[in-house]
């Protein structure tokens, strides 16, 4: 079981934003974004900050892979 952040990357593209902009908006480190690009686990508070910055829900940015 794992996670996929594909929805997050698609949402960033849809909102016509750059990853760097989103990182700064949500106060997320580059190393955390690197982990996410490899579909690795990150802390829930990071996901919550991203949701607040992007005005979305958790299900809009992360998907559980069974």
Features:
globular, 66 residues, two-stranded antiparallel ribbon, mainly alpha
Strand-and-helix sequence, N→C?
EHHHHE
- Beta-strand percentage? 5-15%
Which descriptor suits the 3D outline? globular
Number of H/I helices: 4
**Class based on secondary structure composition and strand pairing:** mainly alpha
Number of strands: 2
**Overall mean pLDDT:** 96
Largest sheet, in brief, is:
2 strands, antiparallel
Low-confidence stretches: none
Order the strands across the largest sheet as they lie in space: 1-2
What fraction, in percent, of the residue positions are helical? 40-55%
Gyration radius (Cα, Å) is: 11 Å
Q: State the distance separating the first and last CA atoms.
A: 5 Å
What is the oligomer described by this structure? single chain
Written account of the structure:
The chain has 66 residues and is mostly helical. The protein contains four helices and two strands. It has a two-stranded antiparallel sheet. Helix 2 crosses helix 4. The longest helix has 11 residues. The relative contact order is 0.27. The model has no long low-confidence stretch (mean pLDDT 96).
């Amino acid at each position: 079981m794992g996670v996929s952040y594909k929805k997050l990357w698609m949402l960033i593209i849809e909102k016509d934003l750059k990853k760097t902009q989103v990182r700064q908006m949500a106060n997320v480190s580059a190393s955390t974004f690197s982990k996410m690009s490899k579909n690795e686990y990150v802390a829930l508070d990071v996901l919550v900050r991203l949701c607040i910055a992007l005005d979305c829900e958790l299900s809009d940015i992360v998907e559980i892979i069974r």
